[in-house]
Amino acid sequence: MTLNRKMTLLFIALAASILAALVIISLYAFRSFALTSSTAHVKTAAEIVRVHLTESMINGTIGKREQFLKRLMEIQGSSTARVIRSPLVSRQFGEGLQREMLADRIELQVLRDGKPRFSLVDEMGEPVFRGTIPYIASSQGTPNCLQCHQVNEGDVLGAITIELLLSGLRNHALTNVVGIMVTVGLFSLLAIFGARRLMLPVGETASEIGEVVQRAIKGQFRVRVTQRTKDDIGLIAAHVNRLLEHLEQGLARIMDRVTELTGRMPSGIDNQLEATIDMVNSLADAATFKATIEEDERQHEIYDRFGRLLTERFGLREYSFYETLDNGHLQVICVDGEGSCSCRWCDPQILVRSERCRARRAGHVVDGLTQEHICTAFIPEAKGGEPRRHYCVPIIQSGVIGALVQLVTPASTASCLALQTPYILMFIREMAPVLEAKRLTETLRQSALHDPMTGLHNRRFLEEYVETLIATTRRRHTSLAVLLLDLDYFKMVNDTHGHDAGDAVLKSLAELLQQSVRASDLVVRFGGEEFLILLPDTSGDAALKVAEKIRASVEGYKFRVAGGELRKTISIGVALFPEDSETFWQTVKYADVALYRAKDETACCALRLRCGRTKTATIKSAALLQAR
What we know:
single chain, 628 residues, alpha+beta, five-stranded antiparallel β-sheet, 16 strands, 52% helix, disordered C terminus
């Protein structure tokens, strides 16, 4: 119900209430006035009759009282007038006229108690006011009652009953009430009409404001409220219009900025306000997501967290993550939330021929949700059942494609995923720099732990890894063989052939050492031309055999340098942990001492292998190998 209708009904109800109240009050007032005036009229008539009867008795004309009563009834409005004698008067003066002896119930009560009775009765549809007034004997006045009547003070001598017709008075009252009703009704109509003229702009403005608010809730801010007056209601309409204009402009600016941040306008959502709120909330969630993954240690933790986000927030359970290796090949990181070494939704050839991946080749988003078969490498029925659609997003890292995110969904829900892609892209954009930072950090870490020339682990890596290695050796109750190796007369290579030749010799030696040991063994460039080899779960005899194998391989190897070939020999010192020392670095020290003992032996004995045990406390049981 509109405000105008409510106000109209309110005014009508008020007018009707006022009119009803006036009618009731008027009727009650007329009735009270009629009763009061009739009572006074009856009392006056009764007093006139009493005075006439008294004078008639004194003048001896009491016998003509009947004619007087008849003339009294001829007065307009009078209906009945009769006098009733009390038994006291009848006993003194005898019975009166026949009609003076017929007393009804009310008159008998008045004769008994001397109290007047007044009542309003309905006779034949006519309202009649009846009053019965007693005549009380009194010694006051001249002449007084006791002069003629032999009664006591206060005795009832008789009663007079007078009936008055009120139909004329009633008609007059009804006429007045009708006049009041008509007058009040006219004024009420005028008041309602005037109020409606005043309230109509209020109601229409309020109704328009309600409609405008409802449309604003739906994201429509272009509507305006009509300004009908220049009073307060007109000002309210003007303020509402300014508010709508401000909201429209503000929302447009927010949408523009959101589009700049997301790179895409949300589609399929009629309510732009809700769309903007969703996008802003997603931006906040994406920022929170970025702050969370920045604290993750490795890239795989980030991929796991992003996979859970796709499942829990977007209801996506089929997806793939790829990374680009240094050689340009693709590596599968995760498929459908599980680590996998093979493709599930794409041709496995993309792992070795990355140019077959359209997103990897083009460097931009590949939207297979709206363009079916856009990428020939995608397998739409990899798991059978309903065909799938895909949405592939390349992640740029340091100017190249560092990773790929592939979203997969059944064809029936492709349109739903298309609506969610702007939100997913926000999380991917927040994730991309973190992934790049983690990759660079890992690269720097690997660079810090590897020798850049030979590709072997360096001494810093050994310092970080040794605690784990020692703990494993102690837990297994085995031995860890430490081999310390040094090329003989390596300085002569640099001095004679140059540092490039020396670098070539070290690179070849690093490859030779890796080929001479197991995959579980650790080869470390310890410094300069020194190398350290750790042989887990290896006894002393086995370590000597490995050392001899390495010595012989180096002795027979031809190092290629610019301008020819070189042959070199190597000295090796061997020590065992924990047999030779309870600490790892002390064991390395013993191997170093054994190495220099071997070099000393080399200076004296050429081209011979010597191994033995010393009895000195500083060397303990370090084995000595020399080769030349």
